[in-house]
Design brief:
18 helices; alpha/beta; six-stranded mixed β-sheet; Rossmann fold; about 45% helix; binds pyridoxal-5'-phosphate; globular; about 450 residues; single chain; 2 domains
Length: about 450
């Protein structure tokens, strides 16, 4: 629950457990929640087993597919559908669990928490759905007024639970984020109001994401009896693919062969994998906005393993990056290439991939997933299974999809009629004092 460690670094488990073939054989027929329980139990020693089981079951009961993350098969590719949660994007998989985990720990010591965050659209709704109606928790999410898509806005503001507070800032996403940073920097206010975050650096989020890599290995292997598996991962903050890196270390040697790191035009991570050049550039807007990121918040975790688990060297490198906006890591290339290959995918290729895949298979990819599929098609190797992570439902990005294939994707029930539903949202000038006053007046728990 602390987010950052006390020295400002990120938290990691002391060791990564190895799974052997016998254990995996026992796990092959487990349901998704049962598998999640087994995997998480390897890392969690402070929650009684029956409680952890209940938390996991509650988290994945909120998904609309019995398999939670079903694998579908098209051509030579396996598509892992991660978008069956309440907000139709893969972040639900980790955030549903995190919301239940927070509630559990808060209940235990009669605690309370006010979650504060800024969103450019997508993460906000996943965070809101993670904690709606939960005891001891309020959530305050800032979004830029009129600058998120109507569906994104309604996904947040139609959640009417009393503990959910949407604030539309008259300003940009950066204004919202600056306000949030400023408020977290006011330690008196932060402590007085028990402010917490629910952001992408939380270790429990990474852990929840490890599960579906292992799930995929078990299920692809029963589909085609292959040895090695590659994963193509649409990447922004490096959280999802870092979970893949952890899974790779847990699985028997060689079972997960390579992680295909797929970026859009924001290619800092692709340059890192290809040349060891980790240097900031301007953020470019693309059709896959959840990947429009330069400074990847989970990258530090990989640096730790890259430096042979050397916290001092990791810290120095992070300080150098903060100072210069770049790191020269080409000395590590051999090691990087044992774990990753990378592709940066441009906008035209994204559209061509959505259109080509639809023509061939009558299956609609969302633009984020299409980035991964385009990278997978370039990196596919004979005799190695390729699993592409499908990170969002295409209906969330209907305009881009329609441009590519000439028709809009079917609207799933959770989005049907959403624009007409009742909504609640507080519009405010981009002023930290106003936001603080609002939090103050709503910081109460019946
Ligand atoms: C967040 C997100 C990503 C990127 O995941 P990271 O963990 O930030 O690398 C990809 N696709 C979608 C739809 C997302 O919401």
């Amino acid at each position: 629950m602390m987010g950052l460690a006390e020295d400002g670094g990120l938290l990691l488990p002391r060791t990564i457990p190895r799974l052997d073939g016998a254990t995996l054989a026992l796990w092959r027929d487990k349901s998704y929640p049962d598998l999640a329980f087994e995997v998480m139990s390897r890392f969690i020693d402070d929650i009684p087993a029956s409680d952890l089981r209940a938390l996991v079951n509650a988290s994945y009961a909120a998904f609309d597919h019995t398999e939670v993350t079903p694998l579908v098969h098209y051509g030579d590719l396996h598509i892992l559908e991660l978008f069956h949660g309440p907000t139709l994007a893969f972040k639900d998989i980790a955030l549903q669990f995190l919301g239940n985990l927070f509630e559990y720990f808060l209940k235990k010591d009669n605690g309370r928490m006010n979650i504060l965050g800024a969103t450019s659209g997508d993460t906000g709704s996943a965070a809101i759905y993670a904690v709606r109606g939960k005891a001891g928790i309020n959530i305050f999410i800032l979004h830029p007024h009129g600058r998120v898509s109507p569906v994104q806005e309604k996904q947040m503001t139609t959640v009417l639970d009393e503990n959910v507070h949407n604030i539309a800032i008259r300003g940009s996403f950066d204004d919202g984020q600056a306000i949030v940073k400023g408020i977290f920097g006011d330690l008196d206010f932060k402590n007085a109001h028990h402010l917490g975050a629910i952001n992408s650096i939380n270790w429990a989020r990474v852990l929840a994401q490890v599960v579906y890599y292992i799930w995929s290995c078990l299920h692809v292997q029963s589909h085609e009896s292959l040895g090695a598996i590659d994963f193509a991962v649409p990447t922004g903050n490096f959280g999802d693919i870092f979970a893949g890196f952890i899974a790779k270390r847990m699985m028997p040697e060689g079972m997960i062969r390579r992680l295909v790191l797929a970026t859009n035009a924001n290619d800092i991570l692709a340059r890192f994998v290809r040349k060891g050049d980790y240097s900031l550039a301007q953020v470019t807007q693309t059709s896959s906005p959840s990947m429009d990121i330069q400074s990847a918040s989970n990258f530090e975790r990989y640096l730790y393993y890259l430096t042979d688990s050397d916290p001092k060297r990791t810290k120095d490198l992070m300080a150098e990056f903060a100072d210069k906006g770049r790191l020269e890591l080409s000395g590590y290339l051999d090691q990087i290439k044992r774990d990753f290959v990378a592709e940066a995918v441009d906008e035209e290729t994204v559209k061509a991939t959505i259109s080509g895949f639809y023509q061939e298979h009558k299956y609609i990819l969302d633009p984020h997933t299409a980035v991964g599929v385009a990278a997978a098609l370039r990196q596919q190797k004979p005799g190695v299974a390729m699993v592409c992570l499908a990170t969002a439902h295409p209906a969330k990005f209907a305009a881009v999809v329609e441009e590519a294939i000439g028709k809009a994707p079917d609207v799933p029930p959770s989005l049907a009629g959403i624009l007409e539903r009742q909504a609640r949202c507080q519009v405010m000038d981009a002023d930290a004092a106003l936001v603080k006053a609002f939090i103050e007046s709503h910081d109460q728990h019946p």
